[in-house]
Design goal:
The chain is an alpha+beta fold. It has helices at residues 5-31, 46-55, 70-77, 184-193, 213-218, 224-241, 285-288, 290-293, 299-309, 324-334, 341-344, 347-355, 371-400, 407-422, 427-433, 439-447, and strands at residues 61-65, 67-68, 87-93, 98-107, 113-116, 129-132, 136-141, 147-152, 154-155, 162-167, 172-173, 176-178, 199-203, 207-212, 258-263, 271-273, 277-280. A hairpin with a 3-residue loop joins strand 16 and strand 17 (277-280).
Length: 464
């Protein structure tokens, strides 16, 4: 049965009243626990019910600060692709609703945009809808899709502006879980009260997750704060191996949160990384259940987040699904899981078979080397030289920020950097792995006059 707007409002008020009455009765029982007390029925006015709802979830007035564009973030970090540059609000709009916002300029002279629609989540819409704001009152009509509301506040100049936005008519609250601020009781109340929206949102230090209300309800008994903590642990581990340590402006962590969302199965795909990280509904439990997110079932989220960290200068086309696992393995270690997935996937025997091939057949960029085999080569460099190897590789790449060039240019850059960072001539290592580069690259390595490693790095394995 479809409820009218008035009927739905009355239903919502009834829920709010039940919560208020429950806590009122609890308080009275606490006072009169040792004696009989005659109680009166608790009746709330509409204004009191509205006040209760307004206390939960996102605030109507929010302050936003300007930042760089996603393209500028990509350029600073020397990464392969753009990612999210939107900010969460905790609101949803329905199709064709009239929307009202009031904007106050706080500093500077530039104002943000309101954005409706979540990338990959809203498969029916061709593009998100952007509403440019002016100071004062703004009125506009939602498009035929509606959806979750974000704010985009970017500039290609030096960011110096800030603004307060008051979300008024047309903006419905969604269940909105903020790490360290939202209590379990508040979350359960929001899931019950704000039931006229499609999605919910979780916000952590480094991530924001938009998923369907039905999945949030199905997993309401999970530990949401632990889930948020695990999301941050993933992003922090992957940021650490990337050298995002704040030691200089170029090494500051990304300005925006990772955006994760769910995608309807009929839209195709499984999980992927782009402007957002998306996961089909069939695997959304890997995000919403801490035991999966922080265990081996969390590899998918770790892997997709890793794609955002990949740097263009040393990620040639054949290793896009291999270098990403430098970050996945860092997340794995952050959760204390051992041995590595290279071992648990049974990659080492396959590696040995590959390395035993004749020179003519051992081509790292050919079908002879699977993604798992390629992952093992990058993991062996970690086994030899630890986190510091990849931290320095990322930092020096950001500082130099070279034109990535061709696949051959990227292989050359990686090989030379590997030698200078490790302090060793890795010619034997790269030849055994069959990296197909010109003879001139090995001449450049020889010209560095570095010693050969004291051990054969291709024999390195995880400790069992």
């Amino acid at each position: 049965m479809t409820l009218t707007k008035k009927e739905h409002t009355m239903k919502t008020y009834a829920k709010q009243m039940r919560y208020a009455m429950f806590w009122g009765i609890v308080s009275m029982l606490a006072v009169s626990c040792s004696r009989e007390t005659e109680t009166e029925d608790v009746t709330l006015t509409s204004e009191e019910s509205i006040y209760l709802a307004e206390e939960l979830g996102a605030k109507r007035k929010q302050v936003f600060e300007e930042g760089p564009t996603q393209g500028q973030v990509k350029e600073r970090l020397a990464q392969r692709g753009n990612h999210n540059d939107m900010l969460p609000t905790g609101f949803h709009v329905a199709p064709f609703d009239t929307l009202k916002v009031k904007v106050t300029q706080l500093t500077g002279n530039r104002l943000p945009q309101v954005v409706v629609g979540t990338p990959f989540r809203d498969n029916v819409r061709p593009l998100r809808t952007y509403y440019s704001l002016e100071e004062g009152n703004n009125i506009f009509v939602a498009d035929e899709y509606g959806g979750t509301v974000y704010v985009r506040y970017v500039t290609t100049e030096a960011p110096d502006s800030s603004a307060e936005i008051k979300f008024q008519d047309g903006f419905k609250k969604v269940p909105y879980y903020v790490k360290g601020a939202t209590t379990k009781s508040e979350w359960l109340q929001m899931l019950d009260i704000f039931d006229d929206v499609r999605d919910v949102m979780f916000v952590t230090d480094h991530a924001m997750l938009t998923v369907g209300l039905e999945d949030a309800i199905a997993h309401k008994d999970e530990d949401q704060d632990l889930m948020c903590e695990y999301l941050d642990r993933i992003m922090e581990a992957e940021g650490a191996i990337s050298g995002l340590d704040g030691s200089s402006p170029v090494h500051e962590n990304r300005e925006y949160k990772f955006l994760l969302t769910v995608r309807a199965p009929e839209a195709g795909g499984y999980m992927a990384a782009s402007i957002a990280l998306y996961f089909t509904r069939g695997v959304i439990d890997r995000l919403l259940m801490p035991e999966k997110l922080g265990g081996m079932n969390g590899w998918g989220p770790w892997h997709e987040a890793g794609h955002v960290h990949q740097q263009a200068a040393w990620t040639w086309s054949e290793v896009g699904e291999a270098t990403v696992n430098i970050y996945s393995l860092a997340a794995e270690r952050a959760f204390g899981l051992s041995p590595s997935r290279v071992s648990t996937n049974g990659e080492w025997p396959v590696v040995e078979t590959y390395l035993a091939l004749p020179d003519a057949d051992r081509n790292f960029n050919s079908s002879a080397a699977s993604h798992g085999i390629r992952m093992a080569m990058f993991h062996q460099l970690w086994l030899a030289y630890g986190d510091d190897f990849y931290i320095r590789l990322h930092k020096e790449t950001r500082e130099e920020n070279p034109d990535p060039g061709t696949n051959s240019d990227r292989m050359r850059y990686f090989m030379l950097k590997s030698c200078t960072i490790s302090g060793y001539d890795l010619t034997d290592f790269f030849r055994k792995w069959g990296l197909p580069v010109a003879r001139s690259v090995y001449d450049e390595i020889a010209a560095l006059n570095l010693p050969a490693p004291e051990e054969d790095l291709t024999l390195l394995r995880d400790e069992e």
